[in-house]
Amino acid sequence: MIKTIRRGAAALLAAIVLTGSLTGCGTWSNTKIVLTTGLTGDQLFKVGKSVCTLPEAMIYVMDYKQQYENAYGVEMWEHDFGGVTLEEYVKDTIIAQLASVKAVTLLAKENNVTLSDAEKEKISQAAEEYYSALTDEQKKYMKVEKGDVEDLYTAHVLSKKVYTEITKDVNTEVSDDEARIITIQQIRLDSLDNAEIVKARLDEGKDFATVAAAYNRDSQTTVTLGRGEKEAAYEEAAFSLENDQISDVIETTGGYYILKCVNNFDRDATEANKITMVEKRRDEEFTEAYETLMADTPSEFNRQKWTKVHFADYSGEAAPNFMTIYTKYFGN
Q1: pTM (2 decimals)?
Q2: Smallest Cα–Cα separation from 114: which of 49, 164, 161, 147?
Q3: Phi, psi of 28 (to 5 degrees)
């Protein structure tokens, strides 16, 4: 039921596919972390020299509060999901995402990534729009100033620019064969004897779908797949078939298969898969740089300060949506 939001407050992180630098128990997986009360003022955590304040985190709190209460209602915050309340889950998600955004900004200097005057002006405009839309009650609850909003928008814009810079030289050429998506029908049998019986019936001209309905040990007969999704023997047979051709019996660790090719080249799906494959290459390139950074970056986290934040403490009207305004000025 609970899923990480991939829009709204998490939109930028979804776009750059950060792996998340904080685990559910509140420790960064790739860096040295100190749980501390030594952070000053409103500082909530620090990743290297990059600081996140409590007011910045409260901006995310208000976005998530609206998102989840619209979906589940205000009474759901203390509901237990396998030993974790919804509030605990969302708060850990917020810290993980903010930590990722703040950590990525550390890569800006070494990659010579800076903000242009035009970008700074747009950040100021976006922050003004968000901050001016807050009520006095919301500002008091969040303890937020316009400068906090500007800092968070700056971190998001820098993160996006860093991702673009690090991944600019990724090879974007993907051949049709690499990305090819096919559609097949399959029959899985649990023994070679049964597989040979079924193959004999198919060789006699029996309808594949009819035979599959009677013998298939899988609930799914029609399958769409790309390369790398099945065992080697299965994949080799599937991708060598012509349209309407039926394979021999294929032995895999999951049983015995007989395949029929429905479409050996889905053009639209293949083109979409090319985009996915390029994005995966970019993600891998970026993740390598990110994890190298985090391996040597100490962090501090004031969990005591964070435990005092509760979604139910604010019952006023919904705040403006931080990421909606971000998208308005900077795109997805």
Answers
A1: 0.78
A2: 161
A3: -70, 130
